[in-house]
Every structure is written in C-alpha cells, then in structure tokens.
Amino acid sequence: MTHTPHQVVVTGIGLVTSLGVGREAHREQLMASTAPARVTDSQSFAPYTVHPLPEIDWSAQIPRRGDQRQMENWQRLGVYTAGLALDDAGLKGDLEACASMDMIVAAGGGERDIDVDTLIVEESRKRNDREQLLNEKLTTELRPTLFLAQLSNLLAGNISIVHKVTGSSRTLMGEEGAGISAVETGFARIAAGQSTHCLVGGAFVSERVDMLMVMEAIQGLGKDPKVPFWSGDGSANGMNLGTAGAFLVLESLEHAKARGAHIYARLDAVLGDRGSRDTDRLEQRLARLADNTGASGGGEDTVVFSGASGYPALSARERNFLQSRFPAAPMRSVGALFGHSLEAHFPTAVALACLALDDDAPVSPFAAGEDATTSATANTAIVTTVGHVRGEGIARLTRMS
Amino acid sequence: MSKAAYKDHLGRPLVAVTGMGVVSSLGQGVTDNWSALTSGQSGIHPITRFPSEGLSTRICGTVDFIDIPVPNAVERSFAFARETTIEALAQAGITGEFGGPLFLAAPPIEPEWSARFELGDRVKPDQMTGNAYEQFLAVLRDKADPAFHEAVLFGSISERLADLFGTRGLPVTLSTACASGATAIQLGVEAIRQGRTDRALSVATDGSVSAEALIRFSLLSALSTNNDPPEKASRPFTKDRDGFVIAEGSATLVLESLEAAVSRGARVLGVISGCGEKADDFHRTRSSPGGAPAIATISAALADAGLSAEEIGYVNAHGTSTPENDKMEYLALSTVFGDRMADIPVSSNKSMIGHTLTAAGAIEAVFSLLTISNGTLPPTINYDNPDPAIPLDVVPNVKRDAAVTHVLSNSFGFGGQNACLVMSADPA
C-alpha cells in the first residue's frame, strides 16, 4: 500500500422501499420494538406477491418534467433515491462537491414496452416470417427514447444530469453481486485514498412482469401470500420481489470531519466472492468472508442484517450459517419485510444497518415472530447477501456516535 | 532494477501489461488483427445474422467465425471473452489458476427474441390471456427453464470466466456504455495500485448485435446508412461521416504490478500509466457543447500518468464516425494539445473494425500498446473527403512508421461516460 489506509464512513442515506420514502419514514417504523406491518400487493401480479413502490412525488428530487419523461420507474427511483442521499449528506446542490464526487451504481436493465412485445408475440403466431415481422414492428412501434430508459448505465447518466454528480460514473451489473461490488469498490477506493467521497447504490422495481418472468424461470417466486417468509422446517417460502432504492454517501473520515458531516456509521470492511455451492462450499466461503471482514462472534449488540433472498433451500443454508456463526446476535431478515431487490438488495441492507447504528433504540424484528427481539442498541452490524444463483457478500459496520 | 523503478510519479506501483488477446471483425488473435489493421483492411460487411432488407442500416462488424452452442448475446460474449483470455494468458505465460480479480465489461443483457418466440410457442390455448409476459409466466409455472434464466442474467458471463480461469473474489461486471473497455482496465489498475493484488484480468466483450439492438441505435440516428459498399461506411473525421457501424469483438489484458511481472520474468508489453474519467451532465446522448468533460477526462489521464500533453506521441481516437463525436473529440483534443495538435497523429481503429461498443476501449488499448511496441501507427481508412473543420493528422488511409513512447486512448459513451487511458512503453 502506498497510502495510509483511510477510515470509510457513511454520511448520507437515501432509502425508498415499500415501507415509505426516506430515512425518517424507515427509522420511525424500524426502531419501534415490534415488527412493522409488511406492505405488499398480492393482487396485481397474482399469484405473486410484490412489495410495491410507495406513493412518491418524483418532482421532489427530479424537478424537471422533461427529465422524468426520459425515464421509466426504475431510473426514476434510482435518481430520486440518489437525491435523497445527497440531501441527507448535505451535499445536494453543492456543485463543487458533486463535480468531484465518484459514483458507483448497481444496475440491471430498464423496463421494456410490454405492449409492443405482446403485439409482436401475438402476431408471430400468425406468421412464418418472424424475423421480418420483428424488423417491421420494432422499426415502427418502438419509442426511440425508450432505449435510453432501458440502458443499464443510464441510471447513473440520469443522476449526473439531474444531480450533477460527475466526478466519475461507473455502473456495475450482475444481479445481487452488482450491489456487493458497488459497495466493495467504493470502500476500497476510499480506503486506499483513491477517492474521498463516493455515491454508491442501486434501485430495483418489483412491479415488472418482465422481471417476474426472469425469476420464475427457475420457479423461484413465492406464490402463497399468506405464508411467512421462513417456513417451519427452516427453509424459506420463495422470493417475493421488493421495490427498493438505496444510495449511500461514503466518505473518508477526514473528508467527513472536515466538513462537519453527520456520520451514521463506519464501514469497516466489505468483501464479495462466488463459486461452487456444492456440499458445504457455500458455507466455507461465507466463513472465509466473515473471517476476512472481521465479522465474528458478537453479542446482543451485534445485529445481523441477512439478505436471504427467500429462495427456499439456499436461504435455509444462509440462515443456518448465520445462526452458528453469530449465535448471540439478533438477525433481521431483510427480505421478509422489504422483499428481494436484486441489485439494490445489499445497498438496502447496508442502509438499514446504518439506521440501526445511528439510533439509540434497538432495531425491531423484520420478520414478525421469526427474528429475535432485542433490548440492546446495535453497536456492530453484519450485513450479508447471498445471491439467488451466485455471488455472496458480507459487510461489517460499527457505531460511531 | 531498483525498487523506485517499479513506482510511478506518485509512488504507486507501476502497472504492466504482460498478455493481450483480441477478437474483432478482422479476425481472431493479436497477430492477424494487427496485420489487417495496419494494412488498412476493413472488417465491415453486410448483415447475415438476421434479415436486414428494409432496414436503413444493413451493415455491421459482427464476429461470426467463433462457434457458439446457442445463438444469444451471453453465449457469444462469453465465447469471445474466453478466446481472448486464453490468448492473453498464454502470452503472459500464466497457467493454472489466475489468482487475481476479474473486471469484465459486458453488454447489458435482454432475452433474445428467439427465446420470446419459443416461450410464446409453449403457451397453451387456455393460457393465452393477458400480455405476453403473463402468458410466459404461465408457461414457466408449468415447467421451469433454467437455461433461459441463465441466458438473461447479467452475471452469467463473468461467472463462467471466473470458473474457467480461476480468478479470485467476486468478479466485477460493468457497463459504462462505449467507455466500458477502458473502465475495465481502469478498475484493474486501481486494484493493483491499492495493493490488494499483484495481478488483475481486464476483459471487455460484446457479442450483442441483434435486430433489436441495431434498430434501437437506428431510431436514435446513431448508425451509418452508407450501406454500399460496407467497408467504406465508417469514415471518421470526414465531411460525409454519418454515424457509426455497429460491431462486435473482445479484448483481454493481463495486468500485473511491474515489480511482480519482472520478478517472475514475464515479458512486459507496456504499462498503463494513467487513467482519467469525468462524467458529463449535459444530455443523455449528446456531449457538453464546449467539450469540458472530455477535456477534463483527457487532462485527468495525463495528470494520473504524470505526463504533460507535450509527451504524448499518438492518439488512438474514439473516432466513431458520428457527426457529433468526431467534432467534439477534435474540440477536446485541440484544447488540450493546443498548437501542437497538428503534429500529433490521431487515428481511428473504428474506420476498420466499426464500433465494438462495450469492447471498444479494451480492443483499442491493445492496438495502442501494439502501436508502441511495433512503431507503427494504424491508419484511419476511408479518409477521402476530409472535414475541414477537423484539421487533424488522421494517418490517412495508409499506416505510418513512428517511434511512440506514450499513447492516449479516448473512450466516450452515452450517458455522459468519458474514460481515457495513457499507455507507455516498458520503462526498462
């Protein structure tokens, strides 16, 4: 290392989930001893249950109608949440700070035009020249600007346009792993002195039939709205997709202190890995990640924010590992309360951990009757995510206030 | 060699390139590509992958000579990346597990239309209610389709590369649009400079040309419609340039700290001496009129390399052949290089290979390093009608011998993405 390692702290939180808009809306519900009521929609996409977008006024963070029109909800949600994080950090509208701010966004793809796709599929049943049909319909029916709403890196592009964050712009992809890598990369750069302040996060919209299709291709989705997240045998009852936008402002401790920023928590370590999940290879890898992030033991003041997706047997393995590794630490099942949000899942869990580490009240259970209650305030948080097919990550955070 | 010789002007580890691989429409492998590129050959051809009659653009630079088990963007992008990585590791003399991180620039993935049609064919008559996706969901509830799932995940290309080559940790799959290839290299350089690894694998691949991809770019008026003859369509910096030619390819660079490379006796092909980036907040597809972000990106790359503009001997241009890019790029370059602009050769590989999108920055980095090691500047072909508003020495039509120590390579993309690399000769 050519630089003294820098401490990395979280100074801004932007969070939008089915529970509401903004940090405060979440704090009120999560630091209240009993598990908040889940907000779900089991009608619109029956038999599937999704955790929907809350009521939101896009104009509060995306003032220009023209900008709003250039995006669909996935990009709007990300841009909106990024704005919340900047606001929260006291950096919104600080042109100098934003112009030198790095940005790492975990992204999937944007919404498709379901009507056009349906039109083409319906027509294809009547015609043999499908490729010709495709050329005709795509040429005449696609809205030219929709491409930009679909492009993965245009979430970051829109953040640059709307919030003027232009120090750098990198978009990472690859489902849950993208969210892990985004936080890992931002952390590593600040720790090494390559960056002083960085906007990191992602967004995911669950109310998308095209995304449901992807997850149902492995029959991964839960189909019974009445069952709890965890089932009696320790496995989970299937993924329910959850809309979430989560952005964090990461800063070096020096940078945050110099401008008198409020510090939510210190990010001590974050690492990701992947590989075979045969036999106990997943558990071995999670143990290594826990060792290498210094995530071990922990009493009641250590809270584990598990990103278990709800994919049945896999989530059971994650839960068993966490229980044996952190027997005394209360666990919070992020997916139970917020649904599974793929690229945004890990950033969402880190944001929730920061809220808990900044509060004097203990964090409520997320899965009613499942997550242990606690009377201790959190001093350490362990955040995990196990991707529904690949990729695992662990972060460790510490209370600063 | 003293310890200090392994550090750059800021005391950071110098990052060497010890292996390279490339695939483009010109062919497979560094040797074939370089010989075609320096002889001014074009890889642009009529589209054969799908019918193009009636489309305004009917040409492309696809790679159709590498076998794939199923025709989709994931299989194609993976196959290209596998081939270039095998080549790069062989050149680097690395066998067995790679043991360092993987940074992969890959195209955003969507289901192929052939897959939607197949799903549509599986819909039973009583399931034909609601929109197409509701019908597909009914089919998938009846019978899972894990192969389809895997074919539409963004993480599936890096997964296979990681398994095949034994990279370490969670691979990073990234997109910074047309700057992605440069960003993959930048991430590798940063990881080595952080001291968390001695080596990194930077790969950029794009096998995503399909009817829908082409039509989307067409609808944004980004593509050349100079269909006849195809090889004359990409004409960067000319007065009658009218858009880019969509193309495919891949490149892999094995990056190592210079110290680690030398200590294991590896041949050093050059060093990545500087990386710069700066996002543009002006517009989703257009650059700031004054070119300020591009200027800042070039300046940042030079500063990172510890070089002044005077020390750059050649520029590997982004040079897409769109009216907008080439004008903006000239504005940015001429602002940075000032009076010296006329003396610095600037050529565009895209005149021959088209715009390989996600892969472009890495393919052009390989060609930049070959320019240094061979002392040959590849030409800008199809330079028959110079744009008088862009008075550059574009190395018109014919390669040129020139000793070059430091090269600047530009990448600019939709979404305000700008990334520049400075590559230099082996300091030894």
Describe this structure in words.
By secondary structure, chain A is of the alpha/beta class. Chain A contains 15 helices and 11 strands. In chain A, helix 3 crosses helix 8 and helix 12 crosses helix 13. Chain A is globular and about 65 Å long. The model of chain A has no long low-confidence stretch (mean pLDDT 96). With 428 residues, chain B is α/β, with parallel strands linked by helices. Chain B has 13 helices and 15 strands. In chain B, the strands form 3 sheets. In chain B, strands 1, 2, 5, 6, 7, 8, 9, 10, 11, 14 and 15 form an 11-stranded mixed beta sheet that branches. In chain B, strands 3-4 form a two-stranded antiparallel ribbon. In chain B, helix 11 links the parallel strand 10 and strand 11. Chain B is globular. In chain B, 64% of the residues are buried. The interface between A and B is large, with 82 and 82 residues. Strand 4 of chain A pairs antiparallel with strand 6 of chain B, so a sheet runs across the interface.
Q: How many strands, what sense, and barrel or not for the largest sheet of chain B? A: 11 strands, mixed
Spell the H/E element sequence of chain B. EEHEEHEHHHHEHEHEHEHEHEHHEEEE
* Category by helix and strand content of chain B: alpha/beta
The helix content of chain A is: 25-40%
Query: How many whole angstroms does the radius of gyration of chain B measure?
Result: 21 Å
Shape of chain A: globular
Please report the distance between the alpha carbons of the first and last residues of chain A. 29 Å
Overall geometry of chain B: globular
How many DSSP-defined strands of chain A? 11
Uncertain residue segments of chain B: none
Question: Residue share in helices of chain B?
Answer: 25-40%
Short summary:
The complex is a heterodimer of chains A (401) and B (428). Chain A is of the alpha/beta class and 401 residues long. Chain A is 37% helix and 17% strand.
